[in-house]
Every structure is written in structure tokens, then in C-alpha cells.
């Protein structure tokens, strides 16, 4: 297998086509990229902005240029020696009539040849939750009618511009009579004859007959565990692999599958041993991928959490917490708040999934243990408590049993639930555990297996929506830690923990992707790097927030349900704005402020609705949202000059320290175990907010026109523009291609600086045979910038880096300056930092 030395993620759509991507290939080659990493490229719903709503997995999306466009892009990649990694979506497809498989199912019901392709409960009619109100109310309003489908010419039930196909047996031989129906009773009767029923989108959480992706009813679960479905859903992509057009695959949401291991084994067999495969998988604290999965690792969300240990000041965690609690007016308990979020999700957004599991558990108990009675409420409570207590995305039990590691994990979770303050009925909990372990009679094995699969497919979405898409929009202490792959209550950051994580990464998944920005991260990597610096000066930040709140107090609106924004939200608004603030934006730049306002207000709306406290996507609180957005807009109003001047002046040292963090973060990613992934545009500064902001097309004209000049004269502008970052990336990525073994399999050696500035450095070595490298990068440098110093490079005198014996007595070249070092037992940091305040030394 050819392991990539680096990848570059491109988001197709929003103007990015195959031909535009092909034009970028020469630039990516110069940058040092080995593999082009493409977002989904197969046909998706009309107007799709991301491609995960696939309608035809065996057709290149015509919007991107179709087959011909793909061939041109593929040829450009091959001419320049770049590989291609495709992001594929085996878990779900669009439940859209544009999807020919789904349309056939809607038209023919369980008689469709594709009925078993989707995860549908055929014990009842297929639910189509796409009405604005109940069927009865929509019908009464005259919004439903029988019309000829303009595409097929067949009779259909029309709802505005959507034409739901009727089952042929309900109109064949009497087409004109059916098309002439206008009476509401006739339309209702015809509707009742269909294998599907229309319903309100609001009823989907309680009454859905198919498995969806998370809580998105527009995405229906695909049954790739069925060999026929697997073959049909992967036909084109596997052809591309066999033709040598595709070198690697990124598997979207692998935990949504019925049996991830079996799927990956089937994929590996079909794709062959040389295909690079990674999976999108959220790992909990201390969790590792199963060793028997035939893949190279994850897409790297856990890497972001590990990085924070190197750049956050863990010694001031308590001070930051106290400062935030003083503003919010309440003590924070992230784990209890996570429990509340999970309970809300289980009781509302995933009510139907929980109810289906409860029903199945009760049916199994009735057969398996009729000596005692467990009523519906008791079973529901036990089931819910177990779901809520799950600390990781899922276990991986199958019809053949549960892996020993998962048995141990499940036992620990059950024990914690039993001994916790919300302990449910022990008998009900014990029985659910029996089902999950498959400890039932042979005649009930299939039902137990179904329960186990559904349970495992629910714990992941429940965790994701509760933690990433709820709690992380409620807890605002340090937004940089509210990231995909992070924990609700991570331990205080420490370099020791960072080094442990890197050693673990080398051991378990040395060839996984290492990302710092993706299309799913909550904020861009440089915004995160900047916000890390708040941990270094919590009192200063708290004083600034207090000052800004006073300046803008007149903008707070008192509503019936409280102030808008509330104090904790004000803390969040200032912090989010600080992370997204462009390095060159000045208070007098009216156009720049307006451009930022447009992005910022979209973020604010999403943050409020995802928090699900005083407003939500389903129940919009317009007065509250309007008040908060007006407050946020006032922060960027040129007329609010006193605030803007104070904000920019206060923020400047944090910006500068954040730029240093950004370079250190980048260097760590490029050199640590793993395959560095560069998200489109993040080779310069990435100060984006949550999607869709982070999916905006970057300025490729500016990016491709840049050279390696960022290292020639390292001044303030090169840092602030991101030219330095781009030049650093290019230099190291090209080095990775020259020394592949060193980066792919080199050992990881944590180095311990000593001297006055030792705590302000992160350093480690990689070694493979006679080849070695030393990384020395700064951290926690805010203090220097707050004192007004232009540079920190002259502050390293007296700080040394002791070298292990294996690394001593070698000749090293610093790759950015070209200077040669021959350290004996230690390296002088001041000497190494003479040209740049960072160093990467490679043995010659």
C-alpha cells in the first residue's frame, strides 16, 4: 500500500468543478501534496452544497462536469504524479425522488426491487415526512391534488412542486378518472391505498418508518450489509480503484453501519490490499480503533484534541473556569449538562428510535422471562439511562457476539448506571444487557441481533447531537476546546498528555490522517490557535469582557424569558468574534466590518438554534434571535467606535500569540505521527466559523500565485497574511516526500527543554535508522506580546534542548534557514531560533 505523505481536501460544488480542480493540480504539486482528497463527487440532490445527499452513487455529478470532467481531472492528477482519495458515503442516500432507487421504492413499496436497499420498517407504510403540517390540514387547505407528473406522465399526488408517484395498481386502467379527482375524500382514499403516507416533518422524531442519518429525514439509511446493496452502491467507485484512477477511500460515518468491521472487510477485499482506507470515526478519550479493522486509521478528529494539550495553558484552567462562571452566574458541570442534553435528545429528537427499541425489548422479555413483569415505563427508563450513559459512540457487537473489549466496556457502563444517582430498575437494565450480549434463546437470536444493531446505530447519533451539536453551543468557557472529537470535560491540558497521545498515535494508527481544519470543524484552525491564548490570561480576558459588556449594555433587550443576550452568551459572542477577526481588519474599514458581520450573524443564528435553549431549528424564538443578532451586529457597527477601538487594541497581542500558535500547530501536524491533511485554503490563515462558513471557496488565485517567499523575510506581514504559514507547509511537505520512511514509521521521542523558557517550548524528535529530525516550536508566548515585544526570538538565551544519546553528535540542517548545527549533548534554542522563532532540524 502506498501511504500518502500528505493530502489536500477540496470541497466540490459552490463553484468547484472537476476542471477547476484540475487547474489547481500544478499548485498542489508545488506545495508538496501527494494525494488530492475529494469531497463526494457522485450525483447528489439538486442544489446540494456538500454532496453527502447522494442520489446516484454510480454517476459523476453533471454539476461538477460529469464523466468527461472527471477524466480530465484524473489525467491532470496522473500527469503530475498525485494520487486521488475519494470521500464515499455508504451509510445513507438522499430520500429524494431524484434518487431513482428511492423513487422506485415510493412508487412500488415493498414490491420494489430496491425495497431491501434501504433500512425501512415494512411492518407499516413508508412514511414521507415532508409536509408543512399534518396530512389532514394540508389536504383541507387545498395543497394536495392529483396531477400528471411532468417527467413521467403518470398520475401523481402533487404537493406544490413535488409529485409523489402512485402505485400503478391504484390507477392503471383508470388514469383519466384518477387525474380528474378533486374531492378531498377521494384524494384521501387514494392516498390510503399507497404503500406510503405523507406526514408532517414535525412528526418525524416520533413516527418514522426508516432509519435516517442522525436526525435528518432527507437522508435514508442504506443497507450495505446486504451483498447486493454493497455491490450496487460501490460499482463505480470500485471500478475507479481497479482502473488505478482512485488510490484511497475516506468512509463517511462508518459508525452508522450495521456492522462496520464486516463492511470494511468486504471493502478491503473488493478494493485490494493497496488501497489506502480511512474512516470518519469519533474516538472518545482513551478509545482506540479496533485492531482488526483492515484500514489505516481515522480522518483525525482526535488529533485536534491532542494538539490542544500542547497549546493550552492547563495551569490556568481553574482561573478561566471561575472567570466564566462569574459572568454566567452559575457553576458549570459539563457532564451533568451533557446528560441533560442527551435526555432531551432521547425524549424528543430520537423519541421514535428509543420507542422502537423499547418495544422490541418488551417483546423479547415477554418470551424470554415471563416469571417477572417489566412494564413499558420501566423498560423505557432503563433503556434511556443506558443510552445516555454511553461515553463513546458505540460498541461493535454482531450476530456472532460482542468483542471482549466491548463486553468489558458494556459491563463498566452498566455498573456505573446501576450505582449512579439516576439508577433505573436493575432487572430491566440487566435484561437489556443480556440482549446486547446475545444471551437469549436461539429462537430469539434474530430479534436480539436486530435490537443490538439498532441500539449501536443510535448511541453514536445521540452522542454527536448531544455533545457536538448541543453542549458545545451551550458551554462557552473556551470555545477552542468545543471541537469535533473533543470531550465534554477534558482534563487540564498538559505537554505530558500531548506526548502520550502522539506515542499512542504512532502505535495504533501511524498512517491516519492528521487534520486541523475540516468541513465539519466548529472553527478554523487559526481561529482555534488564537483562542487557545485566552487560557494564558483568563483575568485579562474577563476584564475585557466586563468592559465590553458595559460599553454595549444599552443593546441588551429584556424579554419575557430573560435578557437577550444573556451574560454567558455575551461572553461567547466576544470570544467567537475574537477568533474570527481578520488580522488586518481595522475599525475604520467599513466594508471589512460589513463582510465580517454577514458571516458572524449567520454563525450566531446557528449557534443559538443548536444550543436548543431559548430557540431551536424546530421552534424558532424570533424576538430572542432578533435581539441577539442586533446586539451582535452592533459590535461591528462603525458607529460603535469606542468599543471597536478597545476591542482591536485588546485583541492585538492575542492575535500575535495566536499566529505563533498557528505555526507551532502546523509544524506539529506536519511532523508528528500521521498523514497531514491540508483543508482547502488553510495553508493560509483559516479563521472560519462553523459550516457553512468553513465551506466557502478560498481565494485560489491568491493561493496559487504565492511562492516560497514567506521564509525570505519573516516580518509582521508574512505572519499576519499567512504567507509564512504557507511557505512553512510547502517546505515541510516537500521534505516529507524526500524522507518518506522517517515520517511514516520513525519513532517518536519526546524532548524536554530546560532553562528559563523551557515551559514555553514543545519539542520532539522522529528517528528511523540513521535519519532523524528535531522539532522545536514555541508555545504560551502571549506574555511576551502583551509586553509589547515585536519578537520573542531573542528571549530564548539560556534555554537548551538536551538530546538523547542516539541524537547526539550528528550534523543537522535547519530546513527553513539552511543553517547547519552539530550539537553535542544539547541544542541551544537561542541559536536555533536566530532566524525564525521555530526550528525543524533534519540530519544530513
Description:
With 844 residues, this protein is an alpha/beta fold. 43% of the residues lie in helices and 14% in strands. It is built from 30 helices and 28 strands. It has an eight-stranded parallel β-sheet. Strands 21-22-23-28-25-26 form a six-stranded antiparallel β-sheet. A hairpin with a 6-residue loop joins β8 (144-148) and β9. α12 (334-349) crosses α14 (376-389), α12 crosses α17 and α14 (376-389) crosses α16 (426-437). It is globular.
Task: Characterize this entry briefly.
The protein is of the alpha/beta class. 43% of the residues lie in helices and 14% in strands.
List the helices and strands and how they pair.
Layout: E1 7-10, H1 18-31, E2 35-38, E3 42-44, E4 54-60, H2 66-79, E5 83-88, E6 92-94, H3 100-108, E7 126-131, H4 135-140, E8 144-148, E9 155-159, E10 162-165, H5 175-179, H6 184-192, E11 196-200, E12 212-213, E13 216-221, H7 227-233, H8 235-242, E14 248-251, H9 260-271, E15 276-279, E16 297-298, H10 301-311, H11 317-328, H12 334-349, H13 351-368, H14 376-389, H15 404-419, H16 426-437, H17 445-467, H18 495-508, E17 513-514, H19 525-532, H20 538-551, E18 557-559, E19 562-564, H21 567-580, H22 590-611, H23 622-635, H24 641-671, E20 675-679, H25 700-704, H26 716-721, H27 723-738, H28 740-745, E21 747-750, E22 761-768, E23 771-778, H29 782-786, E24 800-802, E25 812-814, E26 820-821, E27 826-828, H30 829-832, E28 839-843
Parallel strand pairs: 1-2, 1-20, 2-5, 5-14, 7-11, 14-15, 15-16, 17-20
Antiparallel strand pairs: 3-4, 6-13, 8-9, 9-10, 12-13, 18-19, 21-22, 22-23, 23-28, 24-27, 25-26, 25-28
Helix pairs in contact: 1-2, 10-18, 11-20, 11-21, 12-13, 12-14, 12-17, 13-14, 13-17, 14-16, 15-16, 19-21, 19-24, 22-23, 24-27
Amino acid at each position: 500500500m502506498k501511504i500518502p505523505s500528505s493530502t489536500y481536501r477540496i470541497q466540490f460544488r459552490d463553484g468547484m468543478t472537476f476542471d477547476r480542480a484540475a487547474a489547481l493540480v500544478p499548485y498542489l504539486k508545488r506545495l508538496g501534496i501527494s494525494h488530492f482528497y475529494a469531497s463526494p463527487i457522485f450525483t447528489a440532490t439538486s442544489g446540494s452544497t456538500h454532496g453527502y445527499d447522494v442520489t446516484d452513487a454510480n454517476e459523476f455529478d453533471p454539476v461538477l462536469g460529469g464523466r468527461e470532467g472527471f477524466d480530465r481531472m484524473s489525467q491532470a492528477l496522473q500527469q503530475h504524479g498525485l494520487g486521488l482519495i475519494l470521500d464515499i458515503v455508504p451509510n445513507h442516500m438522499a430520500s429524494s425522488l431524484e434518487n431513482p432507487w428511492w423513487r422506485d421504492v415510493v412508487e412500488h413499496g415493498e414490491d420494489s426491487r430496491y425495497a431491501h436497499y434501504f433500512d425501512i420498517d415494512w411492518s407499516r407504510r413508508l412514511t414521507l415526512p415532508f409536509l408543512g403540517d399534518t396530512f389532514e390540514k394540508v389536504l383541507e387547505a387545498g395543497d394536495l391534488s392529483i396531477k400528471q407528473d411532468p417527467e413521467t406522465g403518470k398520475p401523481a399526488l402533487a404537493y406544490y412542486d413535488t409529485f409523489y408517484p402512485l402505485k400503478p395498481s391504484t390507477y392503471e386502467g383508470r388514469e383519466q378518472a384518477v387525474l380528474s379527482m378533486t374531492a378531498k375524500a377521494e384524494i384521501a382514499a387514494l392516498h390510503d391505498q399507497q404503500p406510503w403516507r405523507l406526514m408532517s416533518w414535525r412528526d418525524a422524531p416520533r413516527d418514522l418508518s426508516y432509519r435516517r442519518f442522525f436526525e435528518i429525514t432527507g437522508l435514508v439509511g442504506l443497507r450495505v450489509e446486504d451483498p447486493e446493496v454493497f455491490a450496487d452502491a460501490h460499482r463505480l467507485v470500485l471500478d475507479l480503484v481497479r482502473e488505478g484512477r482512485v488510490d484511497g477511500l475516506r468512509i463517511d460515518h462508518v459508525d452508522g453501519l450495521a456492522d462496520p468491521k464486516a463492511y470494511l472487510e468486504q471493502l478491503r477485499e473488493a478494493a485490494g490490499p493497496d488501497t489506502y482506507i480511512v474512516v470518519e470515526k469519533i474516538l472518545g478519550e482513551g478509545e482506540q480503533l479496533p485492531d482488526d479493522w483492515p484500514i489505516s486509521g481515522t480522518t483525525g478528529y482526535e488529533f485536534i484534541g491532542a494538539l490542544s494539550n500542547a497549546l493550552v495553558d492547563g495551569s490556568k484552567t481553574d482561573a478561566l473556569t471561575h472567570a466564566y462562571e462569574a459572568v454566567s452566574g452559575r457553576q458549570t458541570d459539563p457532564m451533568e449538562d451533557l446528560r441533560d442534553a442527551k435526555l432531551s435528545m432521547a425524549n424528543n429528537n430520537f423519541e421514535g428510535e428509543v420507542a422502537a427499541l423499547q418495544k422490541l425489548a418488551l417483546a423479547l422479555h415477554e418470551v424470554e422471562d415471563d416469571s417477572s413483569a417489566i412494564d413499558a415505563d420501566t423498560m423505557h427508563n432503563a433503556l434511556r439511562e443506558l443510552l445516555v450513559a454511553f461515553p463513546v459512540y458505540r460498541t461493535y457487537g454482531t450476530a456472532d457476539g460482542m468483542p471482549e473489549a466491548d463486553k468489558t466496556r458494556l459491563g463498566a457502563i452498566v455498573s456505573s448506571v446501576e450505582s449512579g444517582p439516576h439508577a433505573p430498575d436493575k432487572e430491566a437494565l440487566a435484561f437489556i444487557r443480556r440482549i446486547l450480549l446475545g444471551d437469549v434463546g436461539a429462537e430469539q437470536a434474530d430479534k436480539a441481533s436486530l435490537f443490538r444493531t439498532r441500539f449501536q446505530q443510535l448511541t453514536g447519533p445521540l452522542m454527536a447531537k448531544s455533545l457536538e451539536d448541543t453542549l458545545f453551543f451551550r458551554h462557552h468557557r473556551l470555545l477552542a476546546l468545543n471541537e469535533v472529537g473533543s470531550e465534554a470535560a477534558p482534563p487540564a491540558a498538559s505537554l505530558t498528555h500531548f506526548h502520550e497521545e502522539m506515542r499512542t498515535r504512532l502505535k495504533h494508527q501511524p498512517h491516519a490522517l492528521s487534520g486541523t481544519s475540516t468541513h465539519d470543524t466548529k472553527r478554523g484552525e487559526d481561529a482555534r490557535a488564537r483562542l487557545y491564548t485566552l487560557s494564558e490570561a483568563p483575568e485579562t480576558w474577563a476584564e475585557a469582557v466586563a468592559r465590553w459588556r458595559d460599553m454595549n449594555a444599552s443593546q441588551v433587550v429584556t424579554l419575557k424569558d430573560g435578557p437577550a443576550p444573556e451574560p454567558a452568551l455575551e461572553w461567547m459572542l466576544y470570544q467567537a468574534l475574537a477568533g474570527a477577526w481578520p488580522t488586518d481588519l481595522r475599525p475604520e474599514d467599513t466594508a471589512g466590518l460589513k463582510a465580517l458581520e454577514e458571516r458572524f450573524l449567520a454563525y450566531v443564528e446557528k449557534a443559538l438554534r443548536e444550543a436548543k435553549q431559548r430557540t431551536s431549528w424546530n421552534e424558532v424564538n424570533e424576538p430572542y434571535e432578533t435581539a441577539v443578532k442586533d446586539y451582535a451586529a452592533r459590535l461591528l457597527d462603525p458607529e460603535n467606535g469606542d468599543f471597536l477601538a478597545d476591542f482591536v487594541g485588546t485583541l492585538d497581542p492575542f492575535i500575535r500569540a495566536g499566529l505563533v500558535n498557528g505555526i507551532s500547530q502546523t509544524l506539529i501536524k506536519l511532523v508528528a505521527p500521521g498523514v497531514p491533511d491540508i483543508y482547502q485554503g488553510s495553508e493560509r490563515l483559516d479563521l472560519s466559523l462553523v459550516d457553512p462558513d468553513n465551506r466557502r471557496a478560498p481565494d485560489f488565485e491568491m493561493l496559487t500565485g504565492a511562492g516560497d517567499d514567506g521564509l525570505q523575510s519573516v516580518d509582521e506581514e508574512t505572519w499576519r497574511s499567512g504567507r509564512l504559514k504557507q511557505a512553512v507547509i510547502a517546505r515541510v511537505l516537500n521534505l516529507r516526500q524526500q524522507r518518506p520512511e522517517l515520517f511514516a514509521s520513525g519513532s517518536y521521542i519526546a524532548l524536554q527543554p530546560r532553562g528559563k523558557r523551557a515551559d514555553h517550548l514543545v519539542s520532539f524528535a522522529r528517528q528511523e535508522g540513521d535519519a532523524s529530525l528535531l522539532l522545536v516550536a514555541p508555545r504560551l508566548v502571549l506574555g511576551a506580546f502583551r509586553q509589547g515585544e515585536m519578537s520573542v526570538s531573542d528571549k530564548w538565551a539560556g534555554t537548551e534542548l538536551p538530546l538523547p544519546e542516539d541524537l547526539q553528535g550528528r550534523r543537522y540542517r535547519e530546513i527553513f534557514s539552511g543553517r547547519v548545527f552539530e550539537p553535542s549533548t544539547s541544542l541551544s534554542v537561542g541559536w536555533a531560533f536566530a532566524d525564525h522563532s521555530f526550528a525543524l532540524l533534519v540530519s544530513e
